[in-house]
Amino acid sequence: MQELIPLTDASIRLGIHVTTLRAWVRNGAVPAYRVGRRFIRVDWNELLAAIQLEQRVGPFDGQPVPEAVPDQISASTEDLS
């Protein structure tokens, strides 16, 4: 089930600035969904999967993945087991 959350909430969970997350969405590194005319949401699991992929392949458009993000990913994947 999708957990669509606002970019501000996702950036707080990851410990990054919302502008960084917006750049990732704009560059296509992170999938996002428009809700209504104004609001953009991201699926939390898709966001974590995109970050994991970028950690293997390379940084998001020259912006390194913050140190807190790997901890978030491992905690989330443990919850799924």
Low-confidence stretches: 76-81
- Put simply, the count of helices is 4
Bulk shape = globular
| CATH class division | Mainly Alpha
Mean pLDDT reading = 78
CATH structural fold name: Multidrug-efflux Transporter Regulator, Chain: A, Domain 2
Strand content: 5-15%
Can you describe this structure?
The chain is globular. It has helices at 7-14, 18-26, 44-57, 68-80, and strands at residues 4-6, 33-35, 39-43. Strand 2 (33-35) and strand 3 (39-43) form a beta hairpin. The protein starts with a strand and ends with a helix. It has 81 residues and is α+β, with helices and mostly antiparallel strands. Helix content is 54%, strand content 14%. The longest helix has 14 residues, at 44-57. The protein has four helices and three strands.
